[in-house]
Amino acid sequence: MARRPVIPPEGFNEVLAWFNPDRELAGAMYVQLRNDLFKLFNWAGCSDPEGLTDEAFDRVARKVHDVAPGYDGNPKHYFVAVARNLIKEDLKKVKKQVSLEDIEPAARETVPPEQEPADTRRECLRSCLAVLSVEKRKLIMNYYAKEKQAKIDDRARLAQQLGMTLDALRVSVHRIRRTLEKCIEECLDQKDGQQ
Known about the structure:
- Helices cover 72% and strands 0% of the residues.
- It is mostly helical.
- It has two domains: 87 residues; 95 residues, Arc Repressor Mutant, subunit A.
- Helix 2 packs parallel to helix 4.
C-alpha cells in the first residue's frame, strides 16, 4: 500500500513555488533536496531515512503558507532545520528499541542469564515462537531478519506491505516481543524447576 500523504496537493505546490517560480527549476530543486535529506537521515543512522524525508516535506508543506512569506534565505536551510529535529525524535525512539538478539530473560535466583545454556534459551525461544499465531511469527521473524541498511529497507517494505506506518509496525513488533520475553522467562523457570 502506498504511503498516504498528510498534506493536500496545494501545500506541495506552495513548497515548489517557494523554491522557485519556474516550475521546472523548482522540481529539480525538490529532487535534489529530497536526495540531500535522505543522505542526511541515512548518515545520522536513522531507522527510516525515506520515511523521515517524506515527514520533513509533510511538516514544511503544512506550514509553508505561514513560513514562506516572511522567510529570508534559502528554503533548503528551513528543511534542514526540520530534518535535524526529526533526527532527534528518531534517535529518542531508537533508544527505546532493543533487537530480538538482545532478549535476555529476567534475572532469576537459581541461574544468572549469562550462565544459562544457550541451547536451553534457543529451545525456549523456538517453543515460544511456535505458540504465536502464524501472522505474528512471520512478522517478528521478518522484522529481525536482516542487518544494517537491508534491515531498514526491509522494515519500510514490510510496513508498506501491511499498510501501516513504520511506527505502527514498531509498536506491533514490540508487543509481540514482550509476549515472547514473558514466555521465554516462564519456559526457563520451568526448565530450572525440572532440574
